[in-house]
Design a protein that fits this description.
A two-stranded antiparallel ribbon has the order 1-2. It is mainly alpha-helical. It contains 14 helices and two strands.
Length: 361
């Protein structure tokens, strides 16, 4: 909004030339989202407390140690959505379609999570939307976004799958790109949702991943840097660096209130939204497989659930003491802070591995 409003005035006021630079506007988005989080955080938390009342927000399939967290308000993801949306609209080029695609996916998935969280509170139990209904809404949003991306991106990249480490390997998926892209967005969304089980556990890896993909979007959207690094150039994607910056600022601000002991939980409102956003950015920038590396912690948590369920159904035995994986270590006696910090370390290492693929071509 600022860019679109001030761009015509640059010739008269040279100082406004700063708004042409993605790095400046990304920094502005980070700080704006952070300030919104700090200012609105206490108000949102107090409002959520008043709405939640005596409703339980603790799932039945978690260790007993979580019972002490009863009463902590959920739906804190609303604060994340507010910070990201306002900051993006303020600092990004609002004529860029890629920005709108990712923003719509974020808000759409967040709305699905909000409905789920709201039903849990209104019914005063841990059951919200049915799994099938949540998946249906996610499918509608992600398929619509995938078709839009397919039409917007220039051939031959529009329907292609790009492999890291190989600069010229492209697999043309044709219309198979649509279900593939939808799978990435939905899988990413639900993977973050599964990881969000301990105070601060999910939000820091989300922040790390957002920083990585902001950097990737900046490089892929630049003909100069993409040519130097032998990346596939996707015009217009650089603007997503501003969105990713807003996500970094919103995540950092939310962590202030979500750090142990958490004053608020993000709930499905936040986890489904940020996971879907990261999946959408990876699809737009043609770095879906790199996202599987950078977001490897989320993949690991999801795989632990799949293995647990499959093993129990096939053999009647459980591989882990409890799934997802962070609950397994809780059952093993690890302190919550130990699990969280060690998982953060894993997320940082995986992010560095993912970024290394940008040069190893």
């Amino acid at each position: 909004m600022l860019y679109n409003a001030l761009a015509p005035l640059i010739s008269d006021f040279p100082v406004l030339n700063l708004f042409r630079y993605l790095t400046f506007r990304t920094g502005g988005a980070i700080m704006t989202a952070l300030i919104i989080s700090f200012v609105m955080g206490p108000r949102v938390i107090n409002w959520l407390k008043s709405r939640q009342g005596s409703a339980s927000n603790i799932r039945e399939d978690v260790p007993d140690t979580h019972l002490k967290k009863a009463g902590t308000p959920t739906m804190g993801g609303f604060l994340i959505l507010l910070s990201i949306s306002v900051s993006t609209l303020l600092w990004a080029d609002t004529t860029n379609a890629y920005v709108w695609i990712v923003l719509i996916v974020t808000i759409g998935f967040g709305a699905v999570g909000f409905a789920d969280d709201y039903l849990k509170l209104s019914r005063k139990n841990s059951k919200g939307l049915s799994g099938r209904l949540k998946l249906l809404f996610q499918l509608i949003i992600s398929i619509g976004a995938a078709i839009w991306i397919l039409q917007l991106t220039q051939p031959p990249l529009n329907d292609a799958l790009v492999f890291p480490f190989f600069k010229s390997v492209l697999i043309n998926l044709g219309w198979g790109f649509v279900p593939f892209a939808a799978f990435v967005m939905i899988g990413s969304s639900n993977a973050v949702n599964l990881t969000d089980g301990l105070d601060g556990l999910a939000i820091v890896p989300v922040m790390i991943a957002a920083g990585c993909f902001g950097f990737i979007a900046y490089l892929v959207g630049s003909s100069v840097y993409s040519n130097y690094l032998q990346l596939h150039y996707v015009p217009g994607t650089g603007e997503l660096a501003v969105f990713a910056g807003a996500m970094v600022g919103a995540s950092l601000g939310f962590l202030w209130f979500n750090a142990p002991p958490a004053m608020v939980f993000m709930g499905d409102t936040g986890s489904l939204a940020v996971g879907g956003a990261l999946g959408a950015i990876s699809v737009v920038t043609k770095h879906e497989l790199v996202w599987a590396i950078v977001g490897g912690l989320f993949v690991l948590e999801t795989v632990s659930v799949i293995v647990q369920v499959a093993s129990f159904k096939l053999t009647g035995k459980r591989v882990f003491a409890m799934a997802p994986l962070h609950h397994h270590y809780e059952k093993k006696g690890w302190a919550e802070s130990t699990i969280v910090i060690r998982f953060w370390i894993i997320a940082i290492v995986l992010a560095l591995v993912g970024l290394s693929t940008l040069k190893l071509r």
